[in-house]
């Protein structure tokens, strides 16, 4: 009798394990997303490109896409008029600043998600965490933070408005992610979030690599590894180009 009970217990335990595994698999597949390309190759003729993100959900819900580029330090300088001349007077250095940041949603954020959730997942520029190295008052931090975001937006690296996630029915969705010609190289994170009743119920992160290729990559590596030699070569090239242009005009 004991042996039969043990076998049943083992069977029940195995059933629980299998059931738990299947439940975890179903939970993990509440949202599935992928990119049309996982590599953006920058060559000498690169003028910007678009990558399509497409995916599916297991039912109705809202989707937010957050694209974050490699992080690094950024210095923001404030100019002041001194003796009639505009000069850089004050500077603040921010750490761990995304080089690229874009958010796309299927409808306005305030219609389907609360502020604490936005802050927790850093969805939207107001919730993006930008920490300065210096100690600043809240007023000064707000001014320099706004200047940093404004500079990134002018360069086309931060979205000015939310991108659009389009649904085909209740489950299939897609969005276009644009990368300008000056997009920084490195590893990007493309995060897709499924939101229901104001809470994130599933998320998936997909990597995207932006890399220089061909002749431009060789020049980039040469400039980074041998900056002095690159500078000398650039000066010589500029002088040679000027001399050739002058010689051509003299012939005309």
CATH homologous superfamily assignment: Macroglobulin (MG2) domain
Strand order of the largest sheet: 2-13-12-4-7-9
Instruction: Please provide the ordered H/E string of secondary-structure elements.
Output: HEEEEEEEHEHEEEEEHH
| Major β-sheet annotation | 6 strands, mixed
CATH architecture: Sandwich
Q: Do you know the CATH topology?
A: Immunoglobulin-like
Described by its quaternary structure, the protein is single chain
- CATH C-level: Mainly Beta
Our estimate of the beta-strand percent is 35-45%
Estimated helix fraction: 25-40%
Unreliably modeled segments: 1-27
Number of DSSP helices? 5
What would you call the shape? globular
Radius of gyration: 26 Å
Describe the structure.
The chain has 252 residues and is an alpha+beta fold. The chain has one domain: Immunoglobulin-like. It contains five helices and 13 strands. Strands 2-13-12-4-7-9 form a six-stranded mixed β-sheet. Strands 1-3-11-10 form a four-stranded antiparallel β-sheet, with no helix packed on it. It has a three-stranded antiparallel β-sheet with strand order 5-6-8, covered by helices on one side. A hairpin with a 2-residue loop joins strand 5 and strand 6. Helix 4 crosses helix 5. The longest helix is centred in the N-terminal third of the chain and has 27 residues, at 2-28. It is globular, with a radius of gyration of 26 Å. The chain starts with a helix and ends with a helix. Mean pLDDT is 80; it is low at 1-27.
How is this fold's topology laid out?
Layout: H1 2-28, E1 31-35, E2 39-42, E3 49-57, E4 62-68, E5 71-82, E6 85-98, E7 101-105, H2 115-121, E8 131-132, H3 138-154, E9 163-164, E10 166-168, E11 172-179, E12 186-196, E13 199-212, H4 214-225, H5 227-251
Parallel strand pairs: 2-13, 7-9
Antiparallel strand pairs: 1-3, 3-11, 4-7, 4-12, 5-6, 6-8, 10-11, 12-13
Helix pairs in contact: 4-5
């Amino acid at each position: 009798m004991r042996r039969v009970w043990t076998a049943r217990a083992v069977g029940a335990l195995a059933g629980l394990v299998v059931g738990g595994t299947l439940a975890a698999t179903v939970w993990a597949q509440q949202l599935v997303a992928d990119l049309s390309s996982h590599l953006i190759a920058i060559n000498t003729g690169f003028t910007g490109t678009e990558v399509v993100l497409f995916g599916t959900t297991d039912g109705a819900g809202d989707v937010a896409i957050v694209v974050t580029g490699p992080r690094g330090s950024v210095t923001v300088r404030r100019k002041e008029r001194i003796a009639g001349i505009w000069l850089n007077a004050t500077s603040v250095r921010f750490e761990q600043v995304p080089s690229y940041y874009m958010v796309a949603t299927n409808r306005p954020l305030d219609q389907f998600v609360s502020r604490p959730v936005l802050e927790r997942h850093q969805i939207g520029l107001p919730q993006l965490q930008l920490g300065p190295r210096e100690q600043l008052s809240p007023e000064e931090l707000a001014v320099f933070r706004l200047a940093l975001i404004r500079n990134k937006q002018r360069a086309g690296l931060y979205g000015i408005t939310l991108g659009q996630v389009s649904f085909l029915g209740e489950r299939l969705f897609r969005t276009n992610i644009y990368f300008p010609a000056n997009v920084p190289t490195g590893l990007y994170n493309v995060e897709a979030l499924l939101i229901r009743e104001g809470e994130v119920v599933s998320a998936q992160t997909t990597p995207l690599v932006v890399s220089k290729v061909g002749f431009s990559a060789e020049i980039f590596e040469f400039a980074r590894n041998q900056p002095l030699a690159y500078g000398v070569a650039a000066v010589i090239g500029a002088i040679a180009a000027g001399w050739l242009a002058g010689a051509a005009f003299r012939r005309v």
